[in-house]
Design goal:
By secondary structure, the protein is mainly alpha-helical. Helix 3 packs parallel to helix 5 and helix 3 crosses helix 9. The longest helix is centred in the middle third of the chain and has 32 residues. About 0% of the residues have low confidence. It is built from 16 helices and no strands. The chain has a single domain, classed as Growth Hormone, Chain: A (Up-down Bundle), CATH 1.20.1250.20. The radius of gyration is 21 Å and the shape is globular.
Length: about 450
């Protein structure tokens, strides 16, 4: 039996299209792995900000600002993408923006706080746009009952891309340190490596992944944005009809807030609390990516078998265990164990959440609904890291208390998940599709 069966795909969808779709996860994972998690986050706090007490809060504030921008713009952008069948065109533009923003981070040296903050805000905004747009392709490719496994293919393949980018960066950092070169030399090179792999890998996506959606209407030139905002307002007015999708959004805000902390501050925690060196931190994140790839790939099949809600719930319980272990760790051993659990849960929970959003989103409004989903994810990216930053700032740098407080987000997510009725949500999405099909185009 094939691990990548054709039966998991909708009629007419070829495996090369799915490969092209998964290559975008491969392309953009290096950004989160190297920029947000393993290298630049710790370099900003310890190098650019000079280890000042406000460094962690400044870093989390930059991420919060970028998330706020995405929150305010992504739903309208998603509605526009549906209206004009423009997901692929917008994906190309967002990729270019993130690649250029990542390359700009190479110019951030000690004291260049303003430059670093502007570059991280812009690159993270464009990264988030791309993440939402590529997710909106998933329901066009996978059958409803195999959404979990196909989503897992993309997430697991994505972590391989993260490992490639991190592996090349780790090789260069090790080489530079052997030559006695400082972080101010090798960190910029890792940013250029990340930007290069992102841009080159995304070309495969643009070549293989078609835009299957059809434009929903033909508005007059210049009226697209107004029409998209009108559709967005209608989405909010009709939220009661999609109560399970909106319940998932609230749940996602909670648990994604915790995940955002791990992504943005894992390296900072390792270096500030456990005195990890740069190479140790990169090896740790490399291990996390291996675990995440395995978790995303295997858990997708489990999700198809046991159901979307139980699969997501199990991963949230794992996250709670991870935060307890990380808070208790006084040496590398227990923290490495926590990191492995984090990796397994990260790949599986993010894949499960994307697949669940896919089955609850009406087919005619996928990009719009994934824009709302990204709204929730970006809100969580404000709440989680800012909470961590404020806890460390107000307690004089108590990172243990900050990571322990992060566990409350996963507890909240697990409780809120009980409000999601998957079958009812699928029925609501199907009814919306039937209504859209009955209306004249």
């Amino acid at each position: 039996m094939s691990m990548f069966p054709q039966s998991a795909l909708k009629p007419g969808v070829r495996k090369r299209e799915v490969f092209g779709w998964a290559m975008y996860d491969f392309a953009n994972s290096g950004y989160t792995t190297v920029v947000l998690t393993a290298v630049f986050s710790a370099w900003f706090v310890g190098g650019v900000a000079g280890g000042e007490a406000w460094g962690t809060l400044a870093w989390t504030s930059a991420l919060a600002i970028s998330s706020l921008i995405v929150m305010l713009t992504m739903p309208g952008l998603g509605a526009y993408a549906d209206l004009r069948a423009a997901k692929k065109r917008l994906l190309v533009l967002s990729t270019l923006g993130c690649v250029l923003g990542t390359a700009a981070l190479a110019g951030a040296g000690p004291g260049d706080v303003a430059w670093a903050l502007v570059a991280i805000v812009l690159s993270n905004v464009f990264y988030s746009y791309g993440e939402a747009l590529i997710a909106a392709f998933l329901p066009e490719l996978a059958t409803e009952d195999r959404m979990g496994s196909v989503s897992g293919w993309g997430w697991s393949f994505g972590y391989l891309g993260g490992m490639l980018t991190l592996g090349l960066s780790l090789w260069y950092v090790t080489h530079a340190q052997a030559q006695g070169l400082p972080a101010s030399h090798f960190v910029p090179v890792t940013m250029l490596i990340t930007a290069g792999i992102f841009g080159a890998s995304a070309l495969v996506t643009f070549a293989l992944l078609p835009e299957r959606a059809q434009a929903l209407s033909r508005p007059a030139p210049g009226a697209g944005f107004q029409a998209s905002l009108a559709r967005l307002k209608r989405t909010w007015r009709e939220a009661r009809s999609f109560q399970d999708f909106t319940a998932l959004l609230v749940c996602s805000v909670a648990y994604q807030a915790g995940i955002s902390v791990v992504i943005a501050l894992a390296a900072v925690y390792a270096e500030q609390v456990l005195a990890f060196q740069q190479t140790e931190t990169m090896l740790l994140i490399f291990l996390v990516n291996i675990a995440a790839a395995l978790g995303a790939f295997a858990w997708g099949y489990v999700q198809d078998r046991i159901g979307h809600r139980p699969a997501l719930g199990i991963t949230l319980a794992g996250w709670i265990v991870m935060t307890v272990l990380a808070a208790l760790a006084t040496g590398p051993g227990l923290f490495w164990l926590a990191a492995v659990i984090a990796g397994l849960c990260m790949g599986s929970s993010q894949s499960a959440g994307r697949a669940l959003a896919g089955v609850l989103a009406p087919g005619q409004r996928r990009a719009e609904f994934f824009g709302l989903w990204m709204f929730a994810v970006r809100l969580s990216a404000i709440i989680g890291p800012m909470t961590y930053g404020l806890v460390t700032w107000s307690t004089g740098g108590n990172h243990r208390l900050a990571i322990a407080s992060t566990g409350l987000f996963f507890v909240g997510g697990l409780l809120l998940l009980t409000r999601v009725n998957v079958q009812r949500g699928i029925a609501a999405a199907a009814a919306a599709n039937d209504e859209a099909a009955a209306q004249p185009r």
